[in-house]
TrEMBL record:
It is an enzyme of class 6 (ligase). It comes from Brachybacterium faecium (strain ATCC 43885 / DSM 4810 / JCM 11609 / LMG 19847 / NBRC 14762 / NCIMB 9860 / 6-10). The keyword Transcription regulation does not apply. This is UDP-N-acetylmuramoyl-L-alanyl-D-glutamate--2,6-diaminopimelate ligase. One of its GO terms (molecular function) is UDP-N-acetylmuramoylalanyl-D-glutamate-2,6-diaminopimelate ligase activity.
Amino acid sequence: MTPIVENTPEPARPRHPHGATAAELARALGAAAPEEDLALRGVSLDSRSVEPGDLWCALPGATAHGAEFAAQAAGRGAAMALTDPAGRERCEAAGLPALVVDDPRSATALAAALVHGRPAERLATIGVTGTNGKTSVTTAITRALLELGVPAGAIGTSGTSYRAADGSDHAIATVRTTPEAPELHGLLARMAEDGVEVVSMEVSSHALVLHRADEVVYDVVCFTNLTQDHLDFHGTMEAYYEAKRTLFTPAHARRGVVCVDDDWGRRLAREAQIPVTTYATRPGIDADHRAREHRADGYGSIVEVDGPDGTRTLHAALPGRHYVANTLAADLLLAAIGRTGEDVVQALGEAGTVPGRMEPVAHTPIRGVVDYSHTPDALEQALLTLRAVPGTGRLLVVMGAGGDRDRAKRPLMGEVAARYADVVLVTDDNPRTEDPAAIRAEVLSGIPEGTKAQVHDVDGRGEAIALAAYLADVSDTILVAGKGAETGQQIGGIVHPFDDRLRLRDALRDAQPARGGADDLDEGR
């Protein structure tokens, strides 16, 4: 299958804007009608991305008010501003008529939806939320649909990509897992304009709290799991759960699919305000669809699923229970939008691996795998999965934790790594503005004294990967965890080129001559 990417990113808005008038927006937002009924062609949140005729949204921020950039927005051709009373004066001083509302952040989504002609209503929409699995599920759905010849797209951590009705492939650079509302509705409008039929989206907890996904009523939404992450933003697991739960209300979705493998999922199945279908992969859990057993099939798995209509067989392209769960989720979500049958099952099985998700970069004499696992639960699942692959010798893991993020999970990550791996190389993830050595120390603090694992504190991610390749022996497996398919490393406010897959592949190749063995390194990137 042709990859749905291309080299030159495209604008996150339609070529032919639907548009709306200022008076229409004022009525919808409950704002005072403007003196001049301007025609608005687009919506922007960032003053640097404004295009002529845009409604520019000047929102209050944690440290500054967006209205401080009103002159820049006006200079780029903004026609009007949407802001709160605190931002009105600065916007008008810059020559921008203002639509003034008390909560401009929540109003931004409605404005964007109206200006772009409510594009979500012209697409079949699937939303996926959960700590882990969002990218894998949305990617599997999109690739399966493309195998079936259905124009489809995905929005999420890896950016935005889609195949148009004319068969052309498109890639649009997006920064956040769930883009801000103006960008999101622009993307949906672009896809609808190009004849896309189905879009699968990752819906983050941040997006739900910050109204990024408002004004999209998904045809079906999915909850994969909830484990510790993002407590720097939410504060508590309860608040984290409540953010996820809002997706399962009539304001956001028509029906849902919920994994009940954990207590949070079982609670959500009870509390959801929309009809839900449940699924489980752990034994002894009651659900509408139960993965009864799975067995290794090469690097993937074959799974038998018991459901209301009997037993069916699915093929997961990647190993491990969590990828069985992701495949079952994708199958149920496709069924919810009317895509069923053996051709769908086959397409899911052939959808292939997801970049940076349990992605093999070498098979023999040493298996090298790169995975995005950056939470304690995800790391545990990845290590358990690789431990269970037939023929696995020792298990070496290169891991760390991101800076400027949830600090509470750092020692938990270290404890999990030492519990399941034979060799642990604690190194730098994306330190961002923090001291890398201090982050490593917090990770290392979770490793108990007397651990049977061989533990290394390695300054520099490239050095850690090279050391892992040097220490590994025939039949061993190296897991490089935390960054997945990212192609940069954030250190001190600068993004340095860095791809775990390339570094691991090269390190293993450099180590091969010393072993005298033939290699089997994956090429093609």
